[in-house]
Request: fold
Amino acid sequence: MKHFFTCILLILASSLHAQINPAAPWPDNNGNHIQAHGGGIIKIKDTYYWYGEERRQGLDTGYRYVSCYASKDLMRWTFKGDVLKLSDPEKLGHHWVLERPKVYYNKKSKKYVMYFHLDSRDYKFARVGIAVSNKPDGNYSYVKSFRPLGFESRDIGQFIDDDGTAYIVFEDRPNGFHIAKLSDDYMTVEKDMSLVKAPMEGGAIVHYKGLYYSIGSRLTGWDPNPNKYATAPTLEGPWTEFKDIAPPEKRTYGSQSTMLLKVDTTVIFMGDIWKPKEQWNSAYLWMPLQIGDGKLFLPQPEPWTIDVKTGAWKRLSQ
Reply:
């Protein structure tokens, strides 16, 4: 009988978590708040893998950690562990930085290639780092760091086009932000597609019904600001002027963009709600966008659910 009631409670808990509550604590399968900040998602067969900065309390400060979670429905997530545990790889000194990890699967090499922003405390190193693994859930081994195409790189974003071509978005403070194509093996950056001359970070891109949409946030550090979007017929441009993705006084509802995730015809805005003094409590704002015909709008966040097989989603207030 005790086992029966335990099963009922687990079913009820699973049902409760089968929804997305923007800005609220998001428990994983162990009941712990998900630690995947500044993250990115890839889909392998029927499973989504979410990678991000591991910020839980009690970590060894001599290391930086990247976490991995797996889900088949984007709502309930299983913690797969910290897939990268890295000591200072380039002798950057105390308070060195590893941010915004993104993972790509290379079909030719059958390797999982992780990119991340690697930096010193004063943010002058400004490089990307690369680590690789034979499995999506690790362990990842550090390979190298470099400045893509010789440019400074801080915040990075991930984009995989509908034809499977892989790109990285990186913020180059002196010039703007770049959209660049990865090499065939994903181990370096091959070609600059666009340099968008705007002071933007947190860059993210989606290809939707023949048009490219690019979003990003202004350079205000941890503080939220009105995120912006622009469109172009190709990644090479020309890009339109940037416009607000939400009422500017809402400051993107307290969040900063990290990725645009397309599920069939639905495009999900993925943002981080940063709490710099309690980074382990930093939350996530995921919400389907109103998008099409060159327009993009982030509606007022509220609880919602999605069917990943069809892309159909609905507000729970309906």
